[in-house]
Design brief:
By secondary structure, this protein is an all-alpha fold.
Length: about 230
C-alpha cells in the first residue's frame, strides 16, 4: 500500500498544516457519519482486530525498492465500512509513528492516503460484487488493486506538490524518483490485491456475514448468512 515514509521536518509547516486540516476534516466527517447510526459492539470488535492486524502487517517489511509493506487497508474498508475504516487507518498510523514507522508529521498525509484506500476498497468491492456473482476473489482483488493504484498516485502527488525540505531537487528533477516510488507501490498494490482476494474468498466461505455490509445486505439477511456453529464475533 502507499505510505509516505518521511521523517519529521521533511514537510514545511505550511504544507503540514494544510494536509493536517484535510485529515482532520476527513476524521470529523467519519465521526459525524458514525454518530448518525448505532455502531454495535460486534462491529467495534471487528474494527479493533482490523487495527491490530493492519498494524502488524505494516511492520513486516518487504526488502524491495528501499522497503515496502502491506497494510490491508482496502480489506479493512470492506470489513468495517468507510467511516470506521478511516478511524482504524488513523489508529494504525499513530501506532506506526510511535514505533518510528514514519514521522509524527506524516500521520495526516498517510491518513488521507489510507482513507482513499478504505473508501475506494469498500465501494469498488460493492460494485464489483454486484456485477460478479460467481465468486469473491475477483471483486476482492479488483477493488484492492484499484484502491492502491489510485492511492499510489495520490501519495506521489502529495510529495511532489509539497516538496521535501533541505532537498535541492526541483519538482521536475524529483519526478523520476517519485515515478519509481509510484511504480513500486503499484506493484505492491497488485500483490496485496491477490492477498486480499484470497482472504475475502476465505471469509466468504466461513463467515460471509462479515462481508454483508460491503455486499449491500440488510442486517436480517446478514444474520441468515452466518454458518451454523460459527462464533458470534
Amino acid at each position: 500500500m502507499a505510505h509516505v515514509h518521511l521523517e519529521d521536518g521533511a514537510l514545511s509547516l505550511p504544507w503540514l498544516a494544510f494536509w493536517s486540516a484535510i485529515a482532520l476534516a476527513l476524521i470529523a466527517l467519519a465521526l459525524y457519519l458514525l454518530r448518525r447510526k448505532s455502531v454495535s459492539t460486534r462491529t467495534l470488535a471487528i474494527a479493533a482486530m482490523c487495527a491490530s492486524v493492519g498494524f502488524a502487517a505494516s511492520q513486516i517489511e518487504i526488502p524491495l525498492f528501499g522497503g515496502l509493506h502491506l497494510n490491508l487497508t482496502p480489506l479493512i474498508g470492506i470489513l468495517v465500512g468507510p467511516p470506521l475504516g478511516t478511524l482504524v487507518a488513523l489508529v494504525i498510523n499513530v501506532f506506526g509513528a510511535a514505533v518510528g514507522h514514519g514521522g509524527w508529521g506524516t500521520i495526516s498525509v498517510n491518513t488521507i492516503v489510507n482513507s482513499i484506500e478504505v473508501v475506494l476498497g469498500f465501494y469498488a468491492y460493492r460494485l464489483m460484487r454486484a456485477q460478479m456473482k460467481s465468486g469473491r476473489f475477483a471483486p476482492g482483488f479488483g477493488a484492492t488493486a484499484l484502491a492502491l493504484v489510485v492511492s499510489a498516485f495520490v501519495a506521489g502527488g502529495i510529495m511532489l506538490v509539497s516538496g521535501i525540505q533541505d532537498s535541492h531537487l526541483t519538482g521536475e528533477e524529483a519526478l523520476p524518483s517519485l515515478s519509481v516510488l509510484i511504480a513500486a507501490n503499484i506493484i505492491t498494490g497488485i500483490g496485496e490485491g491477490f492477498v486480499t482476494g484470497y482472504i475475502i474468498s476465505f471469509i466468504g466461505r466461513v463467515r460471509p456475514d462479515l462481508l454483508a455490509h460491503a455486499e449491500g445486505l440488510s442486517p436480517t439477511a446478514a444474520e441468515k448468512t452466518i454458518p451454523e456453529g460459527s462464533a458470534n464475533v
